């Protein structure tokens, strides 16, 4: 029909155009309805579902407005020429399908697959419908802008399909069928890691392109422990990363990938072993160069040569220390895969200085029970062998107690432990100060975040953290930064305190304490140092035995509220034997066939009925050997005088 005929008043062609628009609307205005119903039925809950559903709702409304506008334009044209036409209403309500999943949080892969198929069909059909609509509007001599909008909605649908199909592929590869990890559910299912990625999101995006410096920023952020969601974001990012990009990062920065909480344990192990081998070769080569240089400098006679030789010798000493650290790690890894133990996984490695590492017997991502041991004073990477052996012994015991339970036992030395030769008066490194524990709590919390984020085993895993000696102080602080999410239970052995006044302050379901009656380190928990202060208020405390110590309430104190398990009494000897102490007991909790070792195995497995518990003694009023001191200003009142400090007695049998 020509424009002249339309202007002349012939409305027949316009009515035909309107009918074509209405038919197109009837066929395509509901193109997104099926996908919207799946979302309304909770096919996808959490992890970007809200923003995606909102975006799809906006696109559905835009599609229906486009057809309504198109029909209204043609109807207006008809009425302008004296005809009669009422524009139809093309906005339709959406009837939701009732959800079959009460309380479900995640993605129903089957339902999402059907939704994506419907969305893909809309992506194919709407651009074609837009072309037909454009022709109808053109024949009516009105604007074709609504047709462009219909095509744009189709383009949006097609773009989302590619992204969602890639994510569904990730979920379908998971061993547990429908359910993905909490990390993917929380951060990886829609358009990136978060609606507002921020600096971490930007760093992850840059790292995906191979920027190792960006990855280093993520590692630095995780070690602060300030962001409890970071490991989950990293896990989602890594799972959705292109395999070629993963390989590129591992080849470029194996140490960073191996240190990244949220990356699967098997990948971290592979990356760290590659880094270990690379550093071993590089150090050997560099040492050969430095030793040759040192020999030449030794022959020099000028002062400059002497200064240069001193710096050369320092570098040689540091590299030789790193060689010893590498040897210690290599020997520790060799403890896995023998005598029934699973292979060892190298989950973290930092050479130089005192060094850091995390070694696991068994894959924690696939274990039913995961125990992470945090060692205490004197721990170094060079001497890690003894601590790793204890983790292996713990695995042995737990596996004997529950042979059908898949267990992973981790030794985590991811902090700088205080050294006895550092001086007790230095606030930054002293074993009597919580400073190093506070610095180590962030990395420990982040490490546990990563274990939770990457766990794959079906069912509900049990996470245990075992803190020994000063490591229990680190554990206690870390637990308080992740109340309710840090672990299912804590085991404290030889503990001087957790920087908490009560076990309930730690935010963990169960807190277990084992203390040898002859352990002098554990009894530091109720021996305040000179000038001791309340760990919460900071007010000076009265120097009373069994009161709050430098790290809070002694965990073995009944007032602390922990569950106590039996530890064998050991005959005392040595320097402290005359007052009932023996330093050897502080490291004896893992002794073969010991009651403490058996009890720790039972606790790790959740076999609480088999644990030899200590009874809670009835309150008594012991004779006072000290006068009641006057209350200090603002100090907590002391209810009754207490006896002179003695080693913790062995409680009577149950």
The main β sheet shows up as: 8 strands, mixed
**The level-1 CATH class of the largest domain:** Alpha Beta
* Assembly annotation: single chain
Counting DSSP H or I runs of 4 or more residues, the number of helices is 18
Percent range for β-strand residues:
5-15%
Q: For the largest beta sheet, what order do the strands appear in spatially?
A: 1-2-4-3-5-6-7-8
What is the average per-residue confidence, as pLDDT, rounded to a whole number? 80
Domain DUF1023: 355-527
Protein name: DUF1023 domain-containing protein
Region (Disordered): 618-654
Organism: Nonomuraea angiospora
Characterization of this structure:
Pfam families: Abhydrolase_8. This is DUF1023 domain-containing protein. Residues 618-654 are annotated as: Disordered. The protein has an eight-stranded mixed beta sheet. The chain contains 18 helices and eight strands. By secondary structure, it is α/β, with parallel strands linked by helices. The chain has helices at residues 3-7, 12-28, 33-40, 49-80, 109-139, 145-172, 182-188, 198-208, 212-222, 230-239, 243-252, 254-259, 265-298, 303-333, 384-401, 435-454, 470-481, 595-605, and strands at 344-350, 356-361, 369-374, 407-413, 462-468, 489-493, 510-514, 563-564.
């Amino acid at each position: 029909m020509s424009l002249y005929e339309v202007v002349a008043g012939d409305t027949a062609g316009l009515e035909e155009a309107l009918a074509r628009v209405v038919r197109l609307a009837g066929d395509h205005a509901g193109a997104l309805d099926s996908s919207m119903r799946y979302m309304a039925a909770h096919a996808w809950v959490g992890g970007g579902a809200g923003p995606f559903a909102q975006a799809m709702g906006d696109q559905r409304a835009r599609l229906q407005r486009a057809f309504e506008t198109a029909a209204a334009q043609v109807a207006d044209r008809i009425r302008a020429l004296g005809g009669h036409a009422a524009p139809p209403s093309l906005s339709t309500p959406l009837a939701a399908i009732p959800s079959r999943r009460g309380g479900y949080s995640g993605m129903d892969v089957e339902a999402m697959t059907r939704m994506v198929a419907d969305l893909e069909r809309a992506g194919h059909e709407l651009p074609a419908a837009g072309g037909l609509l454009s022709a109808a509007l053109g024949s009516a001599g009105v604007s074709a802008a609504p047709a462009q909008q219909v095509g744009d909605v189709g383009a949006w649908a097609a773009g989302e399909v590619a992204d969602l199909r890639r994510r569904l592929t990730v979920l379908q590869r998971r061993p547990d069928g429908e359910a993905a990890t909490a990390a993917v559910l929380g951060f990886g299912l829609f358009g990136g890691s978060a609606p507002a990625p921020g600096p971490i999101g930007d760093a992850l995006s840059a790292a995906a392109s191979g920027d190792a410096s960006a990855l280093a920023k993520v590692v630095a952020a995780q070690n602060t422990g300030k962001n409890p969601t970071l490991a989950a974001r990293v896990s989602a990012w890594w799972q959705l990363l292109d395999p070629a990009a993963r390989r590129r990062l591992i080849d470029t920065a194996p140490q960073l990938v191996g240190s990244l909480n949220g990356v699967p344990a098997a990948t971290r192990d592979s990356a760290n072993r590659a880094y270990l081998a690379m550093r071993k070769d590089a150090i050997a080569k560099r040492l050969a160069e430095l030793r040759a240089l040192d020999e030449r400098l030794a022959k020099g006679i000028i002062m400059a040569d002497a200064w240069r030789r001193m710096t050369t010798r320092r570098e040689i000493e540091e590299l030789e220390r790193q060689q010893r650290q590498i040897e210690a790690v290599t020997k520790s890894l060799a403890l896995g895969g023998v005598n029934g133990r699973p292979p060892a996984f190298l989950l973290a490695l930092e050479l130089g200085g005192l060094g850091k590492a995390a070694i696991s017997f068994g894959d924690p991502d696939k274990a039913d029970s995961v125990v992470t041991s945090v060692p205490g004073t004197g721990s170094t990477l060079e001497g890690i062998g003894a601590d790793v052996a204890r983790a292996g012994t713990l695995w042995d015991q737990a596996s004997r107690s529950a042979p059908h339970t898949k267990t992973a036992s981790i030794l985590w030395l991811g902090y700088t432990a205080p050294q006895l030769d550092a001086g007790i008066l230095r606030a930054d490194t002293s074993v009597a100060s919580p400073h190093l524990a506070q610095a180590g709590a962030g990395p420990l919390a982040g490490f546990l975040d990563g274990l939770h984020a990457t766990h794959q085993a079906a069912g509900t895993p049990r996470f245990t953290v075992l803190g020994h000696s000063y490591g229990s102080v680190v554990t206690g602080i870390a637990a308080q930064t992740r109340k309710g999410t840090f672990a299912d239970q804590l085991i404290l052995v030889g503990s001087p305190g957790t920087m908490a006044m009560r076990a309930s302050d730690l935010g963990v379901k169960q807190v277990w304490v084992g203390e040898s009656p002859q352990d002098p380190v554990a009894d530091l928990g109720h021996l305040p140092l000179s000038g001791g202060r309340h760990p919460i208020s900071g007010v000076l405390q009265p120097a009373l035995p069994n009161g709050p110590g430098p790290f809070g309430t002694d965990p073995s104190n009944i007032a602390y509220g922990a569950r106590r398990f039996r530890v064998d009494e050991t005959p005392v000897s040595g320097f402290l034997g005359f007052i009932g102490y023996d330093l050897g007991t502080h490291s004896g909790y893992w002794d073969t066939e010991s009651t403490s070792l058996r009890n720790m195995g039972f606790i790790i497995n959740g076999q609480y009925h088999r644990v030899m518990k200590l009874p809670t003694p009835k309150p008594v009023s012991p004779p006072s050997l000290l006068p009641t001191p006057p209350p200090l200003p603002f100090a907590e009142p002391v209810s009754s005088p207490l006896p002179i400090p003695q080693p913790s007695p062995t409680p009577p049998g149950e």
